[in-house]
Amino acid sequence: QVQLVESGGGLIQPGGSLRLSCTVSGFTLDNHAVGWFRQAPGKEREFVAGQRWIGSNVYSTDYADSVKGRFTVSRSIADSTLYLEMNSLKPEDTAIYYCAADERRRPQVSTLSSDYTYWGQGTQVTVSA
Q: 82-116 burial, b if ≥16 CB within 10 A, otherwise e?
């Protein structure tokens, strides 16, 4: 059974940092692209970042323009966990953050939420003074 479990969310002041974790089970992390999405109140779910394994410890990572230079994706294969390191957080980063796994092998990381089959329950990130 495929499962993704996010953790690490919380309340943080603007300019602060948080690290989200997405621990997966039921599949091998390197066999699927995994994406981070977020959904703010009253808004559609949007792509934040995603990573897929190319081979030989090489990964391709894509970021939304709104988080480039501030957010970083990394992974621990031993722990079956994908991380989202978020720095210089802004109030507009406030949202529920989800990780998701794509069943299909694609030439690049998909930014469409509809392409992802498995989803975690989400973790709330609130950036506020």
A: bbbebeebeeebbbbbbbbbbeeeeeebbbebebb
